[in-house]
Amino acid sequence: MRTADLSHRKDTRFDVAPLPETIEALIRDLDLSALRKMRLSGAVEPVGARNFRLRARLGATVVQPCVVTLAPVTTRIEADVERMYVDGLEAPEGDEVEMPEDESLEPLGPEIDLLAILAEALALNLPAYPRAEGVEAGEMVFAEPGVAPMRDADVKPFAALKALRDKLGDGES
After folding, report:
1. What H or E segment, with its residue span, contains residue 28?
2. Which candidate, 84, 113, 109, places its Cα nearest to that of 18?
3. At 146, is the secondary structure helix, strand, or coil?
4. What is the reported pTM?
5. What tens-digit pLDDT sequence spans the chain (173 residues)?
6. Interior CA angle at 92 toward 87 and 100, to 5°?
7. What angle do the packed helices 20-29 and 114-125 form, to 10 degrees?
């Protein structure tokens, strides 16, 4: 959307569904197995004399491999997306920048890239560790030969106290 074409009196509505080549690029870039029913719908509304607010709803169905079994896991994503485009806001520069309190602020440029917003919102809302139905992560145990391996239960706050209590209990019998 060209910002010069946006109305300063009324909302500009949009409904974006990416083309197949864009979907293929997202599948590749986000390590997905499949991506379907993807859409970004909403409006860009004027705020004051020169700023704009984008409010939209992302809908997508993604298929990712299970982190335990690699079986396909299908997830429906429905997420609200909001950006505030501010005229004159400087884009941060440098290797390290401090995040602003309002992370929805964006500098107002010559255009608003709806496909970039769609891709970012999808990436932020993907399940980080998708699991197939009924699958537990399990416990992996490693140790050098001859050394007792450390288990998850061993690092819990009261595991040492329980072991001491059990040891003292055994000595009193």
Report:
1. helix 20-29
2. 113
3. coil
4. 0.72
5. 999 899 899 999 999 999 999 999 999 999 999 999 999 999 999 998 889 999 999 999 999 999 888 899 999 999 999 999 998 887 767 777 676 666 778 888 899 999 999 999 999 999 999 888 877 766 566 677 888 777 766 667 676 777 778 888 765 54
6. 80
7. 40
